[in-house]
Specification:
Largest sheet: none
Distance between the termini: 52 Å
Strand content: under 5%
Main location: membrane
Shape: globular
Structural class: mainly alpha
Order of helices and strands: HHHHHHHHHHHHH
Number of helices: 13
Keywords: Membrane, Transmembrane, Transmembrane helix, Ubiquinone
Subcellular location: Membrane
Membrane topology: Multi-pass membrane protein
Number of strands: 0
Radius of gyration: 20 Å
Protein name: NADH:ubiquinone oxidoreductase subunit 1 (Chain H)
Length: 324
Amino acid sequence: MNSALYLLENPLIRGLAGALIVVGMISVSVLILIWAERKIIARLQHRYGPNRAGKFGILQTIADGLKLFLKEDITPAGVDRITYSLAPVLCFALAMIPFIAIPVGRNYIVADLNAGILFILAVASLSVIPVMMAGWSANNKYNLLGGLRGAALMISYEIPAGLAIIGILVQSGSLRLADIVEAQRDGWFILPQFLGFAAFLISAFMESARPPFDLLEAESEIVQGWTTEYGGVKFALLMFGEYTHSVLSAMLIAILYLGGWLGPFDSSLWLIIKALLVMIFLMWVRASVARIRIDQMLNFGWKVLIPIALLNIVIAGIVRLHYY
């Protein structure tokens, strides 16, 4: 009994257990969401979508994953082998790390950090590194163009996303995500912070490179962009990491603007439902909006979103002074 208690109280054991739980839960969630997205988009486009592997095609994502993991791991000639092989692992790791600071409920969190939102933004900003590594190391012009596009987009849209969150910090008075949720008991921040919400929503999902904002890949322009020379397990890790960023964005939007786990009764179920609704909205956007040009996206980020985010900070400051 004493040895069991020691293991539970050991920070290293608790950290490893928490990490395994996070990776397991996010992995299962991503697999289900990929299947759901394919079915939803198919219905929006008057198609059936996956309907062969398992009931309603529920096993299709698992079949695709097995196919990728069982493929021969081919390394093209002329690549920088270390950087080429390290990029998928780093992409997957950096996508998972922010979830340790995401509170699923009031007492359900791996690492309850006082500056949790800063930690998440700091780690998320590193996601440009594996994109550049994959783009440069593959010795392919399409990979390089995709990597450069990724760097330009991520740098451009991190600024309005960070500025949009400042309004949240002004209203909540805390950097701790649980405190931000509790500050919304009298009303979600989506209404007083609507400009910030719009700026963060657009920034987060453009930075996640989801269609129709997937200019890092842009099959109609640069083949598969930064992942062109990748296949098998490496490609699976890159795509899994990229999709996980979308899940992280949906969770953050639910926590920062939609009251997190607050509802008729406090429950982690409300957070999951809100994040799922955000993901469904993005699926609908993917099925409905055509891909725009890279210069249009960059201009929109610098000339529209940043001024909107700055205006939101001014409004949040005025409201704070007026009521407090």
